[in-house]
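User: I'm putting together a small comparison set for a docking exercise, and I want a reference complex before I start. The sequence is below, and the ligand is magnesium ion. Could you produce the 3D structure with the ligand included, as structure tokens?
Assistant: Of course. I'll restate your input first, then give the structure tokens for the complex.
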Amino acid sequence: MSITLLFLVLTIATSVASPLNQIHLLKPHPGSAGHKHSKLNCLSWRLAVETNNIQKWKQVPEACENYVGHYMLGKQYRKDVDLVAAEAYEYAKGLNITKDGKDVWVFDIDETTLSNLPYYARDTVAFGAIPYNATAFNAWIEEAAGPAIPGTLKLYKRLIKLGFKIVFLTGTEAAYAEARTKNMKAIGYTKWEKLIYKEEGDGSGVVYKQAKRKALEEAGYRIRGNMGDQWSDLLGTNAGDRVFKVPDPMYYIG
Ligand SMILES: *[C@@H]1O[C@H](CO)[C@@H](O)[C@H](O)[C@H]1NC(C)=O
Ligand SMILES: *[C@@H]1O[C@H](CO)[C@@H](O)[C@H](O)[C@H]1NC(C)=O
Ligand SMILES: [Mg+2]
């Protein structure tokens, strides 16, 4: 090897090793050979869940328990809800409300108007990373201790001022109506046109909710807006003039 060539090789080797000349994108990633997707990106997972690209998921992936917990308890969740609520209000404000009392806004309850976070933050629930336990969750409903979701409560009050009638359409079973009604009133949801609970035989979330919305429209109500944390609150027939999805990365109801 000539002296000149050796010099050139050394120069290249040095410049590659120098931190200033690193080309990050070309660096091999450990474990990238066939294991590219082994590390779940929790922000991507949450986005896919919110957009209904991931469906029928049973629980929060174990790897994302901390991520979901931080998201739900931190500022981001509250800000995300606030923005949806603000957008809904801007839309509602522009509508022509008639005085016949038939312009309604449909709200879901759990994780839309009322939060179950004190339950979901328990070690035995782990923000949805531990499989759903109906016995434990129903006992929590009976406590009637769920706090309001601030952004949605504010929207609820503003919609009433605009002249909308409120319909709560919940997947909560009628057996828990007393506790739920008490809870809703205690946290500021003091009036409504209807509060509809799920009865035995009502079917899946989407089937039940579309049937109830259809019945509302058949009774002459105009569903001007519809807000929920599950896509099953918002999909199906008679969905309303416009739907609003608030975040919920803790559980999926089809
Ligand atoms: C508002 O709605 C009522 C009833 O649907 C209708 O008669 C009226 O023309 C509407 N007004 C405007 C400004 O769109
Ligand atoms: C579900 O919750 C109940 C009540 O807290 C508890 O007794 C039961 O062991 C739980 N079941 C499972 C599978 O964790
Ligand atoms: Mg809900």
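The chain has one domain: 42-245. The pocket of magnesium ion (ligand 3) is lined by residues 108, 110-112, 228-230 (CB under 6 Å).
User: Thanks, that's exactly what I needed.
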